[in-house]
Amino acid sequence: MKEIVFNDHHLTDEDMESKVIRVKGLLINSKGKILLAHNNNTYQFPGGHLDEGEGMDECILREVKEETGIDVEIQETPFLCIKTYDNNYFGTGKRVLNCIYYYRFFTDKMPNFQETHYDELELATDFNLFYVVFADLENFLNKSMDDGMIDENIGREMIQVVHVYHEMFGGF
Description:
This protein is of the alpha/beta class. The chain contains four helices and eight strands; from the N terminus they run E-E-E-E-E-H-E-E-H-E-H-H. Helices cover 27% and strands 31% of the residues.
């Protein structure tokens, strides 16, 4: 697994008040399209936070099911972890180590909205799913950032994930 670390403030693990672990899934179909989520005024890969006592594999299966209604199977360990040492986590003033683990899944299953379970924020911000041609994803994200349709930090992070994916696996 590749690891990328962002630590602009040169913080140590001991400096951190807490740690947040999230998982994200790249769901790619046989037509070379990747499933994206859009909510809270930004695009993202499906995924979310670990619940208390939950393992990462359990979490990614649960989050993909909750957000897409798709049952996926773990075929491999995460291919990437992005760690961010944050000195002011979402403006709270807290020092938080944010770790996001990225999995890849190959599935032709379509989203099943009868099987989704959105949280209050997802419901309040019109959670949507759609496919983008994976080969065009970087251009799509750059255009979305230029148009103000995606948070720039999230957009840059997603582009970095795409670059690592291509370095490790080539195409889809």
